[in-house]
């Protein structure tokens, strides 16, 4: 259980912050950039939820919880033997990625194949899901960049990759199963 009875600590006033393992790094560190962008992604999913109902809202709620798991994963560098520790760090696992894949397959089954690229938009829910998709792609790029220099849980990167796909398909579902998608017309305004 997390207890936060004081929000400001003043410990970051000099431009550094603590990672999940207690190490202090610059707030401009690649790891902080990656998990900070996951936090931004979670906020954009929260905006989408303002327009979601039923199973879509439930699925987005699960994703928001996963994104906190993902932030916890990314804010703690991998360490040898951590899986055997008395209290192993929280890591994204394959089952979370597989759940996204199954949900993508279910949603996509009711959609017509695309014949054009889609412009982000349609209704409010779809537009917010497209925004979340682009933030997910940025978070993925930052996690991949971090992984070039430090060990990163591969499932965390897979989760971000699959989540952007999930958000794309969900936006199509939100647009009346693709019927209200806004299609790109190449060169339309020449």
UniProtKB/TrEMBL annotation:
Pathway: Cofactor biosynthesis; adenosylcobalamin biosynthesis; adenosylcobalamin from cob(II)yrinate a,c-diamide: step 2/7. It holds the Pfam family Cob_adeno_trans. Residues 7-174 form the Cobalamin adenosyltransferase-like domain. It catalyses: 2 cob(II)yrinate a,c diamide + reduced [electron-transfer flavoprotein] + 2 ATP = 2 adenosylcob(III)yrinate a,c-diamide + 2 triphosphate + oxidized [electron-transfer flavoprotein] + 3 H(+); 2 cob(II)alamin + reduced [electron-transfer flavoprotein] + 2 ATP = 2 adenosylcob(III)alamin + 2 triphosphate + oxidized [electron-transfer flavoprotein] + 3 H(+). It is found in: Cytoplasm. Keywords: ATP-binding, Cobalamin biosynthesis, Cytoplasm, Nucleotide-binding, Transferase. One of its GO terms (biological process) is cobalamin biosynthetic process. InterPro entries: CblAdoTrfase-like, CblAdoTrfase-like_sf, PduO-typ. Its EC number is 2.5.1.17. One of its GO terms (cellular component) is cytoplasm. GO terms for molecular function: ATP binding; corrinoid adenosyltransferase activity. Belongs to the Cob(I)alamin adenosyltransferase family. This is Corrinoid adenosyltransferase. The lineage of its organism: Bacteria, Pseudomonadati, Pseudomonadota, Alphaproteobacteria, Rhodobacterales.
